[in-house]
Design a protein that fits this description.
Layout (H helix, E strand, L loop, with lengths): L2 H13 L5 E9 L2 E8 L4 E4 L3 H11 L4 H12 L7 E3 L2 E7 L11 E5 L3 E6 L4 E5 L4 E4 L3 H24 L1 H7 L10
Antiparallel strand pairs: 1-2, 1-6, 2-3, 4-5, 5-6, 7-8, 8-9
Length: about 180
């Protein structure tokens, strides 16, 4: 892909409002890992970047310190991995969408919590019916995913309360006593 075209696509996607994203999942292309995004409009886009980079870009749209918010979420819900991405206008829940071809391949994508309509448990997977009518095939346990929805709801409510109180409250909650690493 031409560099200019790549940057135009990234700018387009980053200017899209995250609440307009139904899901974003890791996707294999001939050029390597990419992110497949489904928008409310029904449009699908492939972005040539890792799922990790894409999630960091989402946080940066709101000038949210990715590491600080992840630390806060981990403390509040009592788990360190597979954390939801909580933004002021959207919450994305991690879901296993593929098997890794290579051990280091990303296998988890993220679904906008407000777009989940129904979860159907199958024998070896589950399917998520989304409000737009799309179906996302997911690996793993539907029961465990429902637990993630509950945890994401709790932390979303908590963070919405903090964001409504402003930056000083956020700083207190993130425990940023020594921002510059000075002793």
């Amino acid at each position: 892909m031409e560099i200019k075209a790549f940057f135009r696509m990234v700018i387009f996607l980053m200017n899209s409002i995250p609440k307009d994203i139904i899901y974003f999942v890791p996707h294999y292309t001939k050029n390597g890992d990419s992110v497949l995004i489904l928008f409310l409009s029904g449009e699908k886009k492939i972005v040539p970047m890792s799922i990790r980079s894409f999630s960091k870009k989402l946080y940066s749209l709101y000038a949210i310190d990715c590491q600080a918010i992840k630390k806060l979420i981990a403390q509040r819900i009592g788990q360190k991995n597979l954390l939801p991405i909580v933004l002021p206008d959207a919450t994305f829940i991690p879901v296993k969408t593929r098997k890794a071809v290579v051990k280091t391949d990303p296998i988890f994508g993220y679904v906008n919590m407000s777009q989940i309509f129904r979860i159907d448990d199958k024998i070896d997977h589950f399917e998520m019916l989304l409000r737009c009518g799309a179906v996302l095939r997911c690996l793993g346990s539907a029961k465990y995913f429902k637990k993630r929805i509950t945890l994401a709801s709790v932390i979303t409510d908590y963070l919405q309360g903090i964001w409504s109180q402003g930056a000083l409250k956020i700083k207190e909650e993130c425990e940023l006593e020594n921002v510059f690493g000075l002793e």
